[in-house]
Amino acid sequence: MTQTPRSGRHRRVRHFYAGRAALMSALGVAAVTGWTLGSADSAPSDSAPQARTAAAEAPIEIQHTGQVVAVSDDALTTVTPEGHTTTFRLTPDTNRITGGFEPSETVVVVGVVRNGVPVATAVAEQDAVGPGGPPMDYGLPT
After folding, report:
1. Domain segments of the chain as ranges
2. d(CA 108, CA 129)
3. How far is Cα 71 from Cα 110, in angstroms, rounded to an integer?
4. How many CA atoms lie within 13 A of 2 on its CB side?
5. Which domain of life is it from (predicted)?
6. Would you call 107 exposed, middle or buried from its count of C-beta atoms within 10 A (0-12, 13-18, 19+)?
7. Is it true that domain 60-128 has CATH number 3.40.50.1110?
8. Sequence-distant (≥ 6) Cβ neighbours of residue 100 within 8 angstroms
9. Cα–Cα distance between 124 and 142 in angstroms, integer?
C-alpha cells in the first residue's frame, strides 16, 4: 500500500483551510478599516479661522537725553534738541536717580521698547550722569 502525503488521520480537511482564510480576511478588513478611519480628515468646521498671534518681540534697549516737557506718576515726556518728543512709561520698577523731575530739566533716560511702548528703567538728571560714573542701570534686574 502506498501512502500519499497527509493521508489518513493526519490529513487536513477543507474546513481547516476555510477557517484560516476567513480569519485572515477579517484581519485584513479590520486593518484597512482602521487605517481609513484613522487617516480620514474630519469635516471642516463652521467656525472662522483663528488668527495666529505673533511671537512677542524682544525688548529693544534705548538711551535718550532730552528736556522734560511733562511728568506724571506713570509717564515722562521729553524732547531732544532736534525736536524729537518721546513719552516714556514709568513703572514702580523705574529707578529715579536724584528724586523728582520738573519741566525744563535735562534728563537721561535708559529704557526698553516693549511692543512699541518706551518703558523707562532708569531716569537721572544729566548732571548726575558723568563720564566717570557707573552706568545708571547698574544693579537693575534684567
Report:
1. 13-37, 60-128
2. 8
3. 16
4. 1
5. Bacteria
6. buried
7. no
8. 71
9. 19
Residue pair 24/30 in contact (Cβ under 8 Å)? The answer is: no
Query: What cell was used for 60?
Result: 529693544
CA distance 123 to 91: 11
Return the DSSP state at 13. Answer: P
Q: Give me 25's grid cell.
A: 480576511
CB 91 within 8 A of CB 112: no
User: For the whole model, what pTM was predicted?
Assistant: 0.52
Q: What are phi and psi of 96, to 5 degrees?
A: -105, 105
Written as tens digits, the pLDDT of the chain (142 aa) is 555 566 556 666 666 667 777 788 888 888 888 777 776 655 556 666 666 666 667 788 998 889 999 999 899 999 998 999 999 999 999 888 876 778 888 888 999 998 889 999 999 887 766 655 555 555 556 5
Cell reading at 49? 479661522
